[in-house]
Write a structure and sequence with these properties.
Layout lengths: L1 H14 L3 H56 L18 H23 L8 H7 L2 H13 L6 H36 L7 H29 L6 H22 L8 H19 L19 H22 L22 H19 L17 H46 L2
Helix pairs in contact: 2-3, 2-4, 2-10, 2-11, 3-5, 3-6, 3-11, 6-9, 6-10, 6-11, 6-12, 7-8, 7-9, 8-9, 8-12, 9-12, 10-11
Length: about 425
Amino acid sequence: MIESAEVVEAKMVEIKPRNSEVVPWAEQTGPLEQKSVECSVERKKSLRARYSYGIIFLLINLIAWLVRDYGQRVFPQLHYLKACGIGGRDCFCTMGVLRVSLGCFIFFFIIFLTTCKTSKLYEARSTWHSGWWALKFVLLIVSLVIPFFIPSDFVQLYGELARVGAGIFLLLQLISVIEFITWWNNYWMPNERRRQSCFFGLFMSTLFYIASLCGIVVMYSLYAPGPSCTLNIFFITWTAILLVVMMVISLHSKVNRGLLSSGIMASYIVFLCWSAIRSEPATDKCSPQKQESGHVDWTNVLGFLIGICAIVIATFSTGIDSQSFQFRKDEVQLEDDIPYKYGFFHLIFSLGAMYFAMLFISWNLDSSTRKWRIDVGWASTWVKIVNEWFAASIYLWKLIYPVVRQTEVVDHEEPAQQSDDSALP
C-alpha cells in the first residue's frame, strides 16, 4: 500500500504543468490587452474627430456670412461665372448663402452616406470617419465650389427644401433639449440616500422659476410698453400661461414630477419668446432697439458672433445625442463599439447647414438681410414662436403620456379580470 501511494503521488507530480506549459496562456492574454489598447486609441481618435467636424462646420458658415455681406468685394471673380447671372448678383447675398449652404450640405451628407450603420471601431467606415483628412479637405473644397456652377433655379429649389430641413432640425433639437431636461430632473430628484440632491433640486427649481418670472416682467416692460403692442402682449401672456400650466401639471398627484424639470422648461420657453420678439424688425413703439441703419456698433458684432457660436454648439450637442432618438436604450456598450452614431452625427450637421442658411437669410428667399444681422424679420419671429409652442406641447405630452398609458392598461385589464371571474363556478 505504501508503494502504491508513492506511485500515485509520483503520477500526480508528473501531471502538474511545467513552466513551459504556462507560457502559452500568458501569450494568449497579450493580444487581448493589445486589442484593448488599440480600442482605446481608436475611441479617442473618434471623439477628437467630432471637434474637427464642428470647426469645419463653423468655418463654412462664416464663409456663408462673408459671401452674404462682403462677397462682392472679396470674390469679384464670381462676376465671370455664367451661373451667377449679370454682375454676379445670383452668387451674393441670399443666393450666395444658399450656394455655400448647399456645399456644406453636400459635404456632410456624403460623410453621412459613407459612415451610416457603422457599429465597430475597426470597420473601414470608422477609419474614414476619424481619419483621411487630406482627402476630406479636397472633398470639402469640391463641395463648396460645385454649387457656384449650378443654375439659380436649382439653388432656389434647394432653398425651399432647406426650409423643411431646418424645421426637422429644430424638432430634433427640441427633443434633445427635453431629454436633457428629463435626465437632469431624474439626477437631482429627491433620494433617500442623497438628501443633498433634494435640497439642490429645490434650490435650482426655485432659481429657474424666479429667472422665468423676471424674464416675463422684463419683456413686458421693454417690448410691451403700451396697449398698442398687442402682438407682443399676446406672445408674452401666452408664455406666462404655459409656464403656469406646466407647473400645475408637474405638481398634479397623478403626474408628480416635481418642479425642477418644469422650472428648466419654463426658463427655456421664456428664452424662446424673448428670442422671437428680439427678431422682430425694430420699431419705435414696441421695441427698444434702434431703427435699422447702416451703422454697425460693437453690440451688433458681439451678438452676431455669440449667436453663430451658440448655434454651432447646439448643432454639435444634438449630433452627439443619438441615444435620445433610439427606440431601445438598454443596449450594452461593448469595448469595440463606436462611442456615438456617426451617421446620425453627420445627418444633424447636414440639417444644421440648412438651418444656418435660413438664419442668415431670415427664412425669406426673396429679400436679403442687412450686414451683421442674423435671424431678423417677421418670418424668423413666427418660426421661433411656433418653436416655443411646439416645445411646450412636447413637454406637456411627455408629462401626461405615462398617466394616459397607465389608465389605458387598467381599462384593458379590468374586463379581462371580470371575464375570468365570470368563468368561475
